[in-house]
Structure formats: structure tokens, C-alpha cells
Design brief:
513 residues; 20% strand; six-stranded mixed sheet; 17 helices; alpha+beta
Length: 513
């Protein structure tokens, strides 16, 4: 139908923002993109972003998307925003940033053992030896700011996840979906709302009044303000609906649902993750995976994450692939694509080279570091790069095994999204290491598709998320594992990768000290 409604999806990630128009059949009509300026690194471990850089990227991508589409603007009936998670803006009473946003990749920590609250110190001494409690509380951004800059803490009216701050500037409401309230925040995951218990707020270091409102998925957050209308080209009064974090939106956009109990979603993004959706929330006792509200009512995502997944691929290209840049420009492709071509010429298993891609450590083992072993005189860059891709896949296999054990059901197929899914080589490696079929969508912008599904549901185009997914998620290609590679990878995973994690931690511990 030429007059069918369109839905605006905005995906504000770590490195760029995309705005995409979808119709109710899931077809893409227009795309706008805007890259973000590089993260700033004002001190060791610190990674920050200017909030207005992100807002301007949203406005620019939306304007480009809407301008490039030459149809009737009245057909665009609603939008939804999904964003990077955890990134937090200390915000003043007037809604302006009190300081730069603390990015989710920031490595700074609070020192819980010397906190000025004696209750927090006592609680840490009591339970810290049994749970990674100290590591969790040390990642609380409000607590870090309170210790690092008490005056900034006192000036801060709200600690807003970037989703809530962008909504404040776009539609005038300091609010986010339940799935946007991830990280160290006093969220009652089961009830999908802030915890009423003062204990959690005290441990995190944030008062209830410093938190944004939570709006359930598909409910209206607000309508576009005159100021954002001028920036973006959207009409005043255009509605935005609550969606949630980018990883949850990506799972939804890939059609990963609680009703498909043997299906998992894999995100090959800046952080790489594997997740399963369930109608009941369940948290891992040791926090090896975490539970968060999904981008649909009454559903939860259970997610294992490798904090720097495809980020390490970009790092490798930047640091070790600069000689390929002229060739990449001539072929109008990415350096990473040329590195994948090199790696494909290396046999599965990288001729004995193994990489543990822990450029950022896990919560349980903060001493972890990236490590590569097995190098000989015959090895070169292609072996290193292939071992890195294999290492990412091995880590996701570890996550798969952990989720299967915790949720009590097997994963028999995987649906993949994120930037890494552009590479058939990377997707094939994932299928071979996991030894399951990998469903491979035609386009990797699954987080935006998930946001469009939420906007379609919120605007009333579909009576439920289920109906929206059925209509808007297309069939995916399927890549089958190669039997010869499966045997190689299975042996390497059990005999080298998993035992090597313990070795790596032992070797890295004195370095971390």
C-alpha cells in the first residue's frame, strides 16, 4: 500500500547514530547516518563523550533520513530510540550536562573499601568474599563521581543514562524504558521498575530523586519539542515510544523471542554478546551473565557479554593493518574486510595460534588481559587475525554453555547481527565454533529494526509485539557449520581455550597489581 504508515527507528551506538524509516512489512525506505567524534581520554582508564555530540548526531541522522525520503511526511506516524547502555550523563536541574558523559567502556572504579558511608564498607566486608560485590559497586558511576569529584556530585540533579538524557532533549521527558536501566543502578529487574528499597540506592550511591522515570516498552515517552523539531526536521508533536537498550533491541529486530526456546541472539558489535529471551527473569549467582528487561513487555533477556568484541577487530585493523588502508580506499571497502580475506587463506585453528580476547576483563576476574600464544616463525598477521576472530567465537561458546546450563535448555540455532555480521568469514567461524546453524539477516541494522517494531506497536499499527515481529522481521539466510572445522574447534576449545583462561589469569595477576 502506497499510503501505509512508516516508523522512524533511531539507533545511537558507541561510534555512530543511524536513523531508518521502516514500513509495516519491515522494508527500509530511507537511512541517515552520522559518525560520533572519538571518545576523549582525559585520564588513565577514562573514556568520555560530549552529550551534545550524541544529540547532534541523532538530529543530523534523522534530518538526513527524513530529507532523503521524498514521500508524504504524514505517513511517518511514530518513532523509537535505542541507545548504547550504561553511558551516563551527570545532569543539572535545567537539563544541561554538568560534565561529559561517562562512557560504558570507561575503566575507572570507585574504591568501595574506603567509601565514606560506613554501611557500604561493612556490607562490602560482609559479602565481598562470597560475591563479586566490590567489583559491581566499584562500577557505580554515581559512586565514582562522588569519590572523584564531590562538588560535581553535589551539583548533579540527575544521573541520566544516555537514553533518558536524549529523550529529555528530544521530547522533554527525562525517561527511559526498563531495558535502558542497565549497569549498576537500583533496578528491581523482576518488576521492571526502580527498587523501592533504600538499601540498593544507598549501595549504588544515588538518591531516588536523581533517577529518570521508567516507561514500559511501547508506551509514549513524549512528543518532539520545538527545539528538537528545528534540529531534526521532525514536526512538533511527533511521538516517540519507549524501547530500551541496543542489545535488547537487536535481539528483537532479529526475531529472537521467548517463544523460540532453542534460538539465541548473537551481537557482533563493539561489545559482542549472546543472549536468550525468557518470560521469567533469572540472574546468575556469580554474575557470569546478567538479566535485564527485554524490548517487549513481560520478557527478559539473559545475556553473556565479551566487553570488547568487534572493538578488538577495529583495534587490530588500526594498529596492525595500516598498510592496507590505500588498498581499502581503492576498493571502497574496510581494512577489516581485507584482513578477513587474508585470514580465510589460513586453515581453521590458525596453525596453533590461540588468542584470548580479554582486552577488557570480566567482572569476576579483573586481572584478565588479552593474550596470544603459539606463535612460530612461520606465522604472520593473517594467523594473528584469524586467531582473534576464533577467540571471540570461543568466548561466545563459553557464554552459550553458561546460558544453557543456567536456563536449562539447549541452543540449537543462532541469529546474528551487528557490524561483524557483514563478514561471511566471521559468521562462518561463529557457526563452526558453536556447531549450530547461524541465521544471517540480509542487513545488520537489527537494533534499528527492533526499535521500529516497538514504534509500530506503540503507534497502534499492530495489536502486539508478536504481530509486529511476524510482519516486520524477514527470513534470514542460514549458514551451516562445516564438519571438518567443527572437529578442530571443539578440540581446541576444550583442550586449549578453557584451560588457558585459568593460565592467563594466573600469568596476568602480577601484571594487574
Amino acid at each position: 500500500m502506497t499510503d501505509s504508515p512508516l516508523f522512524l527507528a533511531v539507533d545511537s551506538g558507541t561510534q555512530s547514530t543511524r536513523a531508518i524509516l521502516f514500513d509495516r512489512a519491515g522494508n527500509v525506505h530511507s537511512i541517515g547516518r552520522c559518525a560520533h567524534p572519538a571518545l576523549s581520554n582525559p585520564s588513565p582508564g577514562a573514556l568520555e563523550q560530549e552529550p551534545y555530540d550524541l544529540l547532534n548526531a541523532v538530529a543530523s541522522s534523522v534530518r538526513e533520513c527524513v530529507t532523503c525520503w521524498i514521500g508524504d511526511p504524514s505517513r511517518i506516524v511514530g518513532g523509537a530510540l535505542t541507545t548504547q547502555r550504561v553511558t551516563t550523563v551527570p545532569t543539572l536541574e535545567n537539563g544541561e550536562p554538568a560534565a561529559a558523559a561517562v562512557n560504558w567502556l570507561d575503566r575507572r572504579l570507585a574504591r568501595v573499601e574506603i567509601d565514606d558511608d560506613p554501611f557500604v564498607r561493612w556490607f562490602h566486608r560482609l559479602l565481598g568474599r562470597y560475591l563479586p560485590l566490590g567489583q559491581i559497586l566499584a562500577r557505580s558511576i554515581p559512586r565514582q563521581i562522588k569519590q572523584r569529584d564531590p562538588m560535581l556530585y553535589e551539583r548533579t540533579r540527575w544521573f541520566l543514562p544516555i537514553e533518558a538524557w536524549l529523550h529529555l532533549k528530544m521530547v522533554g521527558a527525562s525517561a527511559l524504558a526498563p531495558g535502558g536501566a542497565t549497569g549498576v543502578l537500583p533496578l528491581d529487574v523482576n518488576k521492571r521498575h526502580w527498587s523501592p528499597v533504600g538499601l540498593l540506592h544507598r549501595l549504588v550511591g544515588v538518591a531516588p530523586r536523581q533517577l529518570p522515570n521508567i516507561v514500559e516498552v511501547g508506551k509514549r515517552i513524549g512528543v518532539v519539542t520545538p527545539e528538537f523539531a528545528k534540529l531534526s526536521g521532525l514536526p512538533e508533536g511527533f511521538p516517540f515510544y519507549a524501547c530500551g537498550g541496543d542489545k535488547q533491541a537487536e535481539a528483537l529486530g532479529g526475531g529472537v523471542r521467548s517463544s523460540q526456546r532453542d534460538l539465541a541472539g548473537v551481537s557482533l558489535g563493539t561489545a559482542s554478546s549472546i543472549c536468550m529471551i525468557d518470560r521469567k527473569p533469572k540472574q546468575h549467582a556469580g554474575f557470569e551473565w546478567f538479566c535485564a528487561p527485554a524490548c517487549e513487555p513481560d520478557a527478559w533477556t539473559h545475556e553473556y557479554m565479551l566487553f570488547r568484541g568487534m572493538w578488538t577487530v577495529r583495534w587490530f585493523a588500526r594498529e596492525l593493518g595500516r598498510d592496507l588502508e590505500p588498498d581499502a580506499r581503492a576498493k571502497e571497502t574496510a581494512v577489516e574486510a581485507l584482513l578477513c580475506e587474508e585470514a580465510e587463506r589460513v586453515v581453521a585453528g590458525s596453525e596453533g595460534v590461540m588468542t584470548w580476547p580479554r582486552w577488557s576483563p570480566t567482572l569476576q576476574f579483573p586481572m584478565e588481559t588479552g593474550m596470544t600464544v603459539g606463535m612460530r616463525e612461520r606465522h604472520g598477521r593473517a594467523h594473528l587475525f584469524r586467531s582473534l576472530i576464533e577467540g571471540i567465537a570461543y568466548d561466545l561458546r563459553r557464554g552459550r554453555d553458561t546460558l544453557e546450563k543456567g536456563l536449562g535448555r539447549p541452543i540449537k540455532r543462532v541469529r546474528v547481527g551487528g557490524g561483524g555480521s557483514r563478514s561471511p568469514f566471521i559468521v562462518q567461524t561463529l557457526a563452526d565454533v558453536l556447531n549450530v546453524p547461524v541465521e544471517y539477516p540480509e542487513e545488520e541494522e537489527l537494533a534499528a529494526r527492533g526499535a521500529a517494531i516497538v514504534a509500530a506497536f506503540g503507534s497502534g499499527a499492530f495489536p502486539s509485539i508478536d504481530e509486529a515481529v511476524k510482519a516486520m522481521v524477514p527470513e534470514a539466510r542460514v549458514i551451516q557449520p562445516k564438519a571438518a572445522h567443527v572437529e578442530i574447534y571443539d578440540k581446541a576449545f576444550h583442550e586449549v581455550y578453557m584451560p588457558g583462561l585459568k593460565t592467563m589469569r594466573r600469568v596476568a595477576e602480577p601484571i594487574a597489581r
